[in-house]
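Regression test case RT-17, inverse folding.

Input:
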């Protein structure tokens, strides 16, 4: 990653569902360390959120996916995070061995029940599989220095 080209205030994720399974990555750092989360990352300067989502998924997981719907937006006074429902195109799930220690496809029901899948990831998975469209404000306290966040999702 070229850190000089990174827009630290803008990040994205893609929730990819394939054959009833969700793509998850075990994070290796920060507040999500050792947790299974939907992969994503920061937007580069001059890059659209859609381009960033595609790039981040490929870099972190080896999966090619196309952004479909926006299923969630989280923001505060310092940054924003857009979550897309993403359509699987191709590729084999594989860890980048930097930002994640493993990448796997997990049954949606199992992911929603596990303790090592954080609340926001569960909300995004639920939104991706719900079939509902249209974002509304949801309660989400969040963690970290910039909480509380505003979150709009399905």
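Golden output:
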């Amino acid at each position: 990653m070229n850190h000089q080209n990174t827009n630290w205030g803008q990040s994205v994720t893609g929730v990819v569902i394939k054959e009833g399974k969700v793509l998850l990555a075990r994070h290796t750092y920060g507040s999500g360390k050792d947790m299974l989360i939907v992969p994503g990352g920061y937007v580069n300067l001059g890059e659209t959120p859609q381009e960033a989502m595609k790039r981040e998924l490929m870099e972190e997981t080896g999966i090619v996916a196309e952004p479909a719907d926006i299923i969630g937006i989280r923001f505060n006074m310092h940054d924003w995070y857009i979550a897309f429902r993403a359509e699987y195109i191709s590729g084999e799930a594989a860890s980048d061995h930097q930002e994640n220690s493993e990448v796997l496809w997990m049954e949606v029901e199992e992911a929603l029940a596990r303790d090592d899948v954080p609340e926001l990831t569960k909300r995004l998975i639920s939104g991706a599989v719900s079939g509902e469209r249209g974002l509304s404000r949801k309660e989400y306290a969040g963690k970290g220095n910039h909480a509380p966040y505003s979150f709009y999702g399905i």
